[in-house]
Design a protein that fits this description.
alpha+beta, Phosphatase 2c, domain 1, 3-stranded antiparallel β-sheet, 7 helices, globular
Length: about 200
């Protein structure tokens, strides 16, 4: 963020985050000839003054906060079945063929994503945005792609992450555990540890 975007963030963080996601989607679409036809999901977190946590996501990348060791999902997974009306209103359809997972036009297993130019007319890229005030009981935040969440519950991820003081080691352990559980999807993971 630069200039007025930065100033706007302090006035209206939610609007600023939405605009950043929109600009990201536009940038990916404008470079689709270089990047290919695919797309991406995303999850972001912004901590203000060590107290207010803002999280946003598009797709099935997820943020999970540990509060006193209890996992709290901070994001919404954007699945085709839950947003079927929006997809159909835009002329698309949701099908479980091929396979057993609901997909937009039988292709994409999320209803919101960046890019995916061939399906863009049926997809949304606006994020769900949540915010919360952290208290002294909030200790770990796990941000990860669906390759982790397909093989691990929110609580399992928090339990593993909390065992490590070093957040980078925690993220590596979560990734290793997802691979050990035969995750077949992309696995990206960041762990943030808060001071008590």
């Amino acid at each position: 963020m630069i200039g007025s975007d930065f100033d706007e963030f302090w006035v209206d963080p939610q609007r600023s985050i939405s605009k950043a996601y929109e600009k990201t989607d536009q940038a990916i679409l404008s470079h689709s000839s270089d990047l290919g036809r695919g797309g991406s999901t995303a999850v972001t977190a912004i901590l203000i003054n060590g107290q207010r946590l803002w999280v946003a996501n598009v797709g099935d990348s997820r943020a999970v906060l540990s509060t006193a060791g209890v996992a709290v999902q901070m994001t919404t997974d954007h699945e085709p079945n839950t947003e079927r009306g929006s997809i159909e209103d835009k002329g698309g359809f949701v099908s479980n063929m091929p396979g057993d997972v609901p997909r937009v036009n039988g292709q994409l297993a999320v209803s919101r994503a960046f890019g995916d130019k061939s399906l863009k007319s049926h997809l949304r890229s606006d994020p769900d945005i949540q915010n919360t005030i952290l208290d002294g009981r909030s200790d770990v935040l796990v941000l990860a792609s669906d390759g982790l969440w397909k093989v691990m519950s929110n609580q399992e991820a928090v339990d593993i992450a909390r065992k490590f003081k070093d957040p980078q080691k925690a993220a590596k352990q979560l990734t290793a555990e997802a691979l050990k559980r035969d995750s077949k999807d992309d696995i990206s993971c960041v762990v943030v540890r808060f001071r008590g």
